[in-house]
Amino acid sequence: MNPANPSPVSAVRPAVDAALAEFMEHRRKLMAEIGPELVPVMDALDHMLAGGKRLRPAFCYWGWRGAGGAEIPEIGTAAAALEFLQACALIHDDVIDNSDTRRGRPATHRRLAALHERSGWDGDPAAFGRGAAVLIGDLCLAWCEEMYSASGLGEAALRAGRGPFDMMRTEVMAGQYLDMIEQERGGETVEAALRVMHYKSAKYTVERPLHLGAALAGRHDELAPVFTAYGVPLGVAFQLRDDVLGVFGDPAQTGKPAGDDLREGKRTLVVAETLSRARSGDADRFRTLLGDPALSAESVDWMRALITASGGLAACEQRIDDYTARASAALDTDAIAPEARAALADLIVAATARER
Amino acid sequence: MNPANPSPVSAVRPAVDAALAEFMEHRRKLMAEIGPELVPVMDALDHMLAGGKRLRPAFCYWGWRGAGGAEIPEIGTAAAALEFLQACALIHDDVIDNSDTRRGRPATHRRLAALHERSGWDGDPAAFGRGAAVLIGDLCLAWCEEMYSASGLGEAALRAGRGPFDMMRTEVMAGQYLDMIEQERGGETVEAALRVMHYKSAKYTVERPLHLGAALAGRHDELAPVFTAYGVPLGVAFQLRDDVLGVFGDPAQTGKPAGDDLREGKRTLVVAETLSRARSGDADRFRTLLGDPALSAESVDWMRALITASGGLAACEQRIDDYTARASAALDTDAIAPEARAALADLIVAATARER
């Protein structure tokens, strides 16, 4: 991003943070009245919400502004609701993948397992942590909708927004399920990886938040095609960058151990592009190593080298460039208000930057 | 229930079933478009939804009718949405408790684990089943809200209903979390068991659905106290009956192995009432056996005998009678429309019957 420009995310971050803080303060009181045991649940949630990049709220906000919506606090609240959906997705994803960390800190189920250990309770701390995290994710999903409905936007706007809001929730869960299936059945085609990215990332992270913003501003039908043309390729590029960082990223920046995606056996496009290019002996060894929880640093290095040498990495970088260019080209329209066009152009850079 | 009367649940069941079928048909198409792999997800959900007793929709419906609401299909749809919340709660509860069965059939996570086995995929079928069930529960929670909002009731009614609808979702998850905590820390006081029942059962199953119905009919503030006075004691009695059946019930009727609650170590009021009365040696042995997954039939028999001999069972039956009487007394008011009063009186019998 051009450091001379204010970040397109920072334009909405204060409103989003304030809306989340106010909502959480009210829920904290409510939960404490039900029982003091619920305080650690709220602490875990505060921690999870604080770490968000506010990317989905930013796309929702700029979808609204791009459709001519005014700069009013209510859109910040409606957009902030998406952070609860994302919190649910991440908390449950970490349970499903049995990931120990999230953004360099213990995952929610690990935090709750640690509470169990500290408290000296009976039973299995890990099982308690997982169960608690399932319930905390459920709370997030319920509160996402509660915050959306109580955003203060008019009934007609909220009703119009429900189309993309509903699709977004269904698609992200369907995409997560397809992702699990591909992982289990060892899917390794480019098509399979792209389908998962389409639902789990492209539509969920970029397209639907933009649609939601446009719908709330009363211009969904008019702007949906433009935002799809921009959002779907950008969302794929965003996920591809994430996948590349998941293999090559600096642990200090990604918050995950080096090569963690390889250890978890994620069936990303990076894997598909590598396996489709590598010689069969190398591909076989790669397959054997992929998903080995005890993967050594040497093996991670060997896998990285193959991803690079096979041309898999270059293919992914080329795709990022291509998808990014398609997203940029889609902004070449008068249908989107000028200030929003500039912000959406900056968001392309922010979402696909090599450093996070 | 007096067999001469039509069941107060059957009054709403056809509308609820029809609304669920229509909603699911639409979702089935949507999911199949995303990917044919999602068909088994919908099958699992159909199965889960088919087994519901429609108790929460019935209370919502009679809350509406009690507040003077007309017999229109839209209330059936809004009430049916609660079956999705219940499906989420049960699917996630079975994951959390690692329960193999639900209503005598494999739990959702076991169904998905079986799919994994049949498909011959890599990885751990049990882990896949749990992960898939987390996502399927999430879908249910999102669809609960989607169905509510799309019920066809007016915006003002839906807005008024959001208060109880929101509280209901927060309270059931908070109650489930407290339940987990009590189980882990070996809680055995009557007060602790009653607090869990208050949120997880009394408010969730009876009081809030009634409040929701009254709110949708525009009479929440007027009727909420009456429905609380009826709903909270009835909800506790309902859960107590469930807890007694969980220890003494016929597996053919409960759909769970005999003494399953004892094997799972549930910290129910039955346990609390027994431990507070048993001699210390017996209580110690009871504590040791409680929650042993390999509990033998002989040990189950011994525990049942202690629950009876200690007076724990009689105390629970006495509480069921007392709470039921309080619920009945609360109906002695002209605030509730006559037909609904009769139905709510029948629902007391239906919800606390010794046979299910």
From TrEMBL, chains A, B:
Superkingdom: Bacteria
Database matches in Pfam families: polyprenyl_synt (PF00348)
The protein's name: Geranylgeranyl diphosphate synthase type I
An example Gene Ontology biological process: isoprenoid biosynthetic process
Similarity comment text for this entry: Belongs to the FPP/GGPP synthase family.
Names of the cofactor(s): Mg(2+)
Organism from which the protein derives: Murinocardiopsis flavida
Record-level Gene Ontology MF annotations: metal ion binding; prenyltransferase activity
Keywords: Magnesium, Metal-binding, Transferase
